[in-house]
């Protein structure tokens, strides 16, 4: 009899025990969910801290020149552009006048061409682009210069998308020392972005590029295509067609002794360096002989050395 009572007592509390276990199970599940939610929140916070900062330099009114940052898809303002006054660029008169006129037309909203400045090293290709922008931007403050690095040329379509968002400004996109080697196929992206894509380049953008190579590709790469392709002429045409996207080809060649000395005298007059003319020429020619070449870069390096010896600072008066 006592055993029956005890069994009935246990039977009454069995459901409560079962419910208690179920409740503990739900409680554990809720705890796991809370822990998972907390973990995901911490992971999200960590990823947010690791992610590149959001672009803050996409407002073209912040400056006259920018550097394109492909990592954040933004324009980084340049406080002070490293450039010479256009009057100091000697020995490249034809290229200077052509690029200046093309840029002025573009700044006025008129048709203008992409430009490829190619040729000898140190003859002022990149200096001319920056100087032309400086000269024309004094006439039209809406003209902006944007430098894109060669390594980020594949992000050009993203830059073009940013430029389309600001039709009230005009943009010169500048790529210095543009060239392609070996199996590099990014030149195909550049071709499509410039002319081949269905969007084309924005009306308020123009591309200026400098290169030591006329066709932007090494000669041995072109010759290899000619010798190994089933249809050599077609293969070579496909490789060199990139340069055809540039309506202006401006060639830069090694300067004569007369042009070299003219550059030297232009710098001396601009920076008001006091030096005897005969001694100046002799020292400048000796400097060029020691470098094995005459160019605008060599002339500038000589002026820096001369100003240092004279104890004078080289302050740009642009």
Please provide a brief summary of the model.
This protein has 318 residues and is an alpha/beta fold.
Describe the secondary structure blueprint for this structure.
Elements: H1 2-50, E1 65-69, E2 74-77, H2 93-107, E3 115-119, H3 125-137, E4 143-147, H4 156-164, E5 170-175, H5 186-196, E6 205-211, H6 219-228, H7 232-240, E7 248-252, H8 257-270, H9 277-291, H10 296-310
What does this structure look like?
There is one protein chain. This protein has 3 domains: 51 residues; 193 residues, 3-Layer(aba) Sandwich (Rossmann fold); 54 residues. The protein is α/β, with parallel strands linked by helices. The chain is elongated and about 100 Å long. The chain starts with a helix and ends in an 8-residue tail after the last helix. It has 10 helices and 7 strands. It has a 7-stranded mixed β-sheet. Helix 2 crosses helix 3, helix 6 packs antiparallel against helix 7 and helix 8 crosses helix 10.
Keywords:
7 strands, alpha/beta, 10 helices, 12% strand, 7-stranded mixed sheet, single chain, 318 residues, Rossmann fold
Q: Give the CATH superfamily of the largest domain.
A: P-loop containing nucleotide triphosphate hydrolases
The share of residues in helices is 40-55%
Number of domains: 3
Spatial order of the strands in the main sheet?
2-1-4-5-6-3-7
Largest sheet: 7 strands, mixed
Low-confidence stretches: 52-57, 225-232
Number of helices: 10
Global morphology: elongated
CATH architecture of the largest domain: 3-Layer(aba) Sandwich
Per CATH, the class of the largest domain reads Alpha Beta
Examine the coordinates and then state which fold CATH places here, giving the name of the CATH topology of the largest domain: Rossmann fold
Q: What is the β-strand count?
A: 7
Strand content: 5-15%
């Amino acid at each position: 009899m006592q055993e029956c009572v005890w069994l009935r007592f246990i039977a009454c509390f069995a459901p409560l025990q079962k419910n208690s276990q179920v409740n503990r199970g739900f409680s554990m599940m809720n705890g796991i969910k809370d822990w998972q939610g907390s973990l995901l929140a911490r992971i999200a916070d960590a990823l947010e801290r690791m992610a590149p900062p959001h672009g803050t330099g996409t407002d073209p009114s912040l400056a006259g020149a920018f550097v394109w940052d492909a990592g954040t898809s933004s324009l980084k303002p340049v406080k002070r552009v490293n450039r010479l006054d256009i009057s100091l660029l000697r020995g490249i008169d034809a290229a200077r006048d052509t690029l200046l006129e093309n840029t002025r037309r573009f700044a006025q909203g008129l048709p203008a061409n992409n430009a490829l400045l190619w040729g000898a090293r140190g003859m002022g290709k990149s200096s001319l682009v920056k100087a032309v922008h400086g000269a024309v931007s004094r006439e039209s403050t809406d003209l902006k210069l944007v430098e894109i690095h060669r390594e980020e040329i594949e992000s050009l379509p993203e830059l073009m998308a940013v430029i389309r968002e600001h039709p009230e400004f005009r943009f010169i996109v500048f790529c210095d020392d543009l060239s392609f080697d070996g199996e590099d196929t990014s030149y195909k992206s550049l071709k499509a972005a410039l002319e081949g894509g269905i969007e084309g380049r924005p009306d308020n953008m123009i591309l200026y590029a400098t290169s030591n190579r006329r066709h932007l590709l090494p000669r041995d790469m072109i010759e290899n295509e000619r010798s190994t392709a089933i249809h050599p002429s077609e293969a070579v045409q496909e490789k060199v067609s990139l340069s055809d996207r540039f309506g202006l080809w401006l060639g830069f060649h090694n300067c004569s002794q007369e042009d070299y000395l003219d550059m030297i005298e232009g710098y001396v007059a601009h920076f008001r360096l006091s030096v005897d003319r005969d001694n100046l020429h002799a020292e400048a020619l000796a400097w060029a002989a020691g470098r094995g070449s005459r160019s605008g870069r060599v002339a500038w390096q000589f002026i820096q050395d001369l100003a240092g010896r004279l104890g004078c600072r080289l302050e740009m008066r642009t």
